[in-house]
Amino acid sequence: MSSRSRLEAIRDHLTPVSATPSIIVEDEAEVPPVDPAPQFPSNIRTVFPPLELEEHPIDDIRSLRVIVVGGGISGILSAILLPTKVPKINLVIYERESDIGGVWHTNIYPGVRCDVPAHAYQSTFEPQTTWSTAYAAGAEIKAYWKGIVEKHQLNKYIRLNSRVTKAEWSEEKGKWLVRVESADRVHEDNADFLITATGHFSEPRLPEYPGIKEYDGHLRHSSNWDPKFDPSGKRIAVIGNGASGLQVLPPLQKVAAHIDHYARNKTWVAAPIGGENFEHFVSERIEKARTSPEEYLKFRKELEIQLFSRFGSIWYAYIRRGGEKNKTARKTITKLMSERLGNRTDLLNAIVPDFAPNCRRLTPGPGYLEALTAENVDYVTCPIERFTRTGIQTTDEGIHREVDAVICSTGHDISFSTAFPIVAHGINLQTAWRPGGNPGFPDSYLSLAAPGFPNLLILLGPNSTGPAGTLCHSVENTITYCARVLRKASREGIRSMAPSVAATRDFRAYCESFFPRTVMSEYCSSWYNGGIKGGRIHGTWPGSASHLNLVRRNARWEDWDYTYLNPQGNRFAWLGNGWTQKDVAASTGEADIGVDLTPWLQAEAFNGGVDLREYHEHWWDP
Ligand SMILES: Cc1cc2nc3c(=O)[nH]c(=O)nc-3n(C[C@H](O)[C@H](O)[C@H](O)COP(=O)(O)OP(=O)(O)OC[C@H]3O[C@@H](n4cnc5c(N)ncnc54)[C@H](O)[C@@H]3O)c2cc1C
Ligand SMILES: NC(=O)c1ccc[n+]([C@@H]2O[C@H](COP(=O)([O-])OP(=O)(O)OC[C@H]3O[C@@H](n4cnc5c(N)ncnc54)[C@H](OP(=O)(O)O)[C@@H]3O)[C@@H](O)[C@H]2O)c1
After folding, report:
1. pLDDT tens-digit readout, 441-488
2. Which positions, given as ranges, span the membrane (predicted)?
3. Ligand 1 nearest-atom number relative to CA 244
4. Could you say which of 3.65.10.10, 3.40.50.620, 3.50.50.60, 1.20.140.10 is the CATH number of the domain covering 216-274+338-408?
5. In sequence order, which residues have a C-beta less than 8 Å from that of residue 165 and are 6 or more positions away?
6. Bridge-partner residues for 420, per DSSP?
7. Does any ligand 2 atom lie closer than 6 A to the CB of residue 247?
8. Residue 424: helix, strand or coil by DSSP?
9. Is any atom of ligand 2 closer than 6 Å to the C-beta of 418?
10. For the segment 317-359, what is each residue's pLDDT rounded down to a tens digit?
11. What is the pTM of this model?
């Protein structure tokens, strides 16, 4: 018996009992008469037709095919966490680019770097202590994620140069049919679950001014920087004063002959995020932090506590005590900007906005204000009328500025909809969530899913990150939530699950009542509000980062609508035949197969060392 595999034993056990019982008669021994089938009282069954029990142990779970679209930070973290947290998962990640990294692969413009300290912009379980500087450059960030992919051997899940061009839910098959295009072929894959990790700054948007197509010079979006372009000695227009525009301008100013910087709206320029500059903080502590794990933990905690405690800065003072933070920020940042601009009060007046700091994401712009004061920079606030073959003309009496190159830092598609159709029950989420669609904005269930779209999960979707906190922690938490959904579907014979319309409407109502309390609802345009001044906020979570942690900790299964694989649609068919795989193994007498029927009996439990809060809570008990 011990030489047989555990699976063989289980398979034998599960072989359906044949209609006529076969009795093996040993030797000539007398065979006792077989009892006739017991007679149950006639009213024992009240449900007709009776449930046909499924012949499997309860924990003989289904393998799920899962497709993740996108190989940026969200896709990479999925490749680590999903196979770890979802038994039997069959995972593939499609990435349209030639390499992993998402925005850190595509954004190679001069000056690109993170605007939160790199020590807090990395996976929580893969700390790199050797960041060369507090705000690491894009290439260093990409190298970090490449290292993670290699270390965890994630290439087995990732298909590069593979663009998803359509996903359609087949109600008949209970699967997503996903069209994937690569250089040499188009193929259709299918999946039980589809997870989008396509990012919300991954589709650069060029402006649509008249004449732009006729412009003869070098024209690029900063997210699509041409590495062969040499800006030295050139006359360059930089359009846009968002985070990218502020980063790309200082290095260009240093080498270009002249820069025309087109900024159609005002913006706050804080010293790195929130007005704090963590450069000193990091440089003062990092050497010591590298000396021991305890010191490093202390450093990370001190750093991230500051990032998680910024939530107060989005509140109106009259609504909440502590909201004074925002008022103070206006004063502090104005003073800071004034100092950095020196005697250029003309620039200060042109840049400092009426709206409150944090109405849009605060932009650090190291070196930006200083660059604006340089002689070779013109700050142009007049709207652009049109492009010509040689330059740009503004609306002020047709002033025309000739340039050799135009760099558009004009943002991205911030609709939080994918660039490809996602269709279920005749509705295309790609258009439904965009202006003009129904409902015309990204109407998610807790940022994670959409009603009417079965087995669809979204990473870094609308309302997905707190206005404070750290991105990677938030993504890891979301993936963990997704893992719970996948485990539930796999374990409980769920064919499809989608959040209910009612739950989604209630979340929408919460957002609509929450955001007007905050400065984010003021009259500024940003990716928080889809670029619509004073518009609905869907860019951030309606609460703090810690608040979001609590929400994601436990799934509210009652908010979901389900269908089941069981032909009778019975939600408890997954209980199987009453056995667990361990019971089967134990009953076949296989003592040496490593089955622990009592995993809770641990030395720690006997000597008082067990943490009772998590005792009996593990889903992964062997
Ligand atoms: C220049 C820049 C700097 C930033 N700096 C910071 C920062 O300092 N701190 C911070 O918190 N956030 C920052 N962000 C925000 C950043 O978007 C997130 O921090 C994070 O990197 C997003 O990761 P992601 O994997 O979710 O998305 P992305 O990095 O956007 O990755 C999405 C991936 O999906 C792929 N994809 C999209 N559509 C398809 C398709 N149809 N088929 C196949 N693949 C597809 C894309 O090619 C891309 O690789 C920055 C963004 C930019 C653009
Ligand atoms: N680490 C970093 O420092 C960093 C760097 C880049 C990006 N990011 C992240 O990515 C987000 C997006 O940054 P982003 O700079 O790419 O985009 P953005 O913040 O949305 O800024 C886009 C800019 O382009 C302007 N613009 C758009 N269309 C225009 C048009 N037709 N004519 C003139 N100007 C136009 C906008 O002006 P209006 O304001 O008038 O609309 C805005 O100034 C940031 O908020 C941040 O989260 C971070």
Report:
1. 999 999 999 999 999 999 999 999 978 899 999 999 999 999 999 999
2. none
3. 1
4. 3.50.50.60
5. 179, 180, 181, 186, 420
6. none
7. yes
8. strand
9. no
10. 656 555 677 778 888 899 999 999 999 999 999 999 999 998 9
11. 0.93
